[in-house]
Automatic annotation (TrEMBL):
The keyword Cell wall biogenesis/degradation does not apply. Its main location: cytoplasm. GO terms for molecular function: 1-phosphatidylinositol-4-phosphate 5-kinase activity; 1-phosphatidylinositol-5-phosphate 4-kinase activity; ATP binding. GO terms for cellular component: endoplasmic reticulum; plasma membrane. It catalyses: a 1,2-diacyl-sn-glycero-3-phospho-(1D-myo-inositol-5-phosphate) + ATP = a 1,2-diacyl-sn-glycero-3-phospho-(1D-myo-inositol-4,5-bisphosphate) + ADP + H(+); 1,2-dihexadecanoyl-sn-glycero-3-phospho-(1D-myo-inositol-5-phosphate) + ATP = 1,2-dihexadecanoyl-sn-glycero-3-phospho-(1D-myo-inositol-4,5-bisphosphate) + ADP + H(+); 1,2-dihexadecanoyl-sn-glycero-3-phospho-(1D-myo-inositol-5-phosphate) + GTP = 1,2-dihexadecanoyl-sn-glycero-3-phospho-(1D-myo-inositol-4,5-bisphosphate) + GDP + H(+). The keyword Transferase applies. It comes from the Eukaryota. This is Phosphatidylinositol 5-phosphate 4-kinase type-2 gamma.
Amino acid sequence: ISSSCCSSSSMFVIIIIVTLAPKRKTKKKHFVQQKVEVFRASDPVLSVLMWGVNHSINDLSQVPVPVMLLPDDFKSSTKIKVNNHLFNKENLPGLFKFKEYCPQVFRNLRERFGIEDQDYQVSLARCPPLKDEDGQCVGLLLTSYDRTLVVKEISSEEVEEMHNILSEYHQHIVTCHGNTLLPQFLAMYRVTVESEDTYLLVMRNMFSHRLHIHRKYDLKGSLVSREASFKEKVKELPTYKDVDFRNNMQKVYVSDEEKQKIMDKLSRDIEFLVRMRIMDYSLLLGIHDVERAERDEEEEMESSYEEEEEEETDMAPAPGSTSPEGISGYMSSFKPMGPGEFDPYVDVYAIQSAREVYFMGLIDVLTQYDTKKKAAHAAKSVKHGAGAEISTVHPEQYAKRFREFITKIFA
């Protein structure tokens, strides 16, 4: 892909060792010498991620789509080791490894979620993903430059948990035809730079790539230790929690029909999470205030009116500016959208109401109820009392309490 918005790119020769690695067998290919275009990013891990995504999607495009997925597809991976003797430190590390987990499975999931591989490739690899300044997440939390994808650093244990649920998750997505509040998992990678492994999970962004979020909540259905800290509350866009939701007397205003649709979807997803013995997940709720957005837009237009007037004579349309690019790119070929308008094919988690647009999805769904969580539950029960609404409870109890809480968030 040629980069129109990244200032520096270069061509050089690299040596690649490709290993196709189902767990049971390892098959090595011969050394291949080829020219590859690489992209500059401030972080070497990001540079390798972008290179790897380009390489894997280009490789997959040469492989026929299987008629059906086989059990081995849920265990397979592809590995690439690159030793770049013509070292160019501005673009890529001299030695790195890139591993893609279950490429055929995630390819199938992307298709079921309505995302074409070429659009995915452009959204993730045309320009470096942006680091999330939220500061909540341990490790990397990135958003693609067009804000349609999220890249989250996960632990090796979470990689294992993803493998544990992937087959059932895929079946759940097939059954509900992709109509879910669960995260849309699109790919999983391991990037190795200087012998250090970074595990990355790519998901669709639950929030809009164009509508600004004015308020944000992370809801677990528990009131114990579920209030945003003072440090969090002074942020430009704080992540509020259950106690804040109650204290702010916040409500979600949708029709009875829309509420029923949401709760049906939520119940189906929660049943899946209980079957997988998963707990400690949250409902991420983002609220876009249409009237506030209109006011902000008017103020912005007034403040920039004179500046625009001066520049107008010099402005010319950018070449190729109307050509579709990335997951959200095709929208530029339609008429511009007004305040509060969105495309349901891109903003799949959006729910329209009279004065607000809500974005609702389930997050943090890779925590299985293991011995660590059982120990945490026992410790919290001692501290807060056995009847306290602590977040660490077994999956059935967690699901029941969570569903009851979410039912009450509607006006």
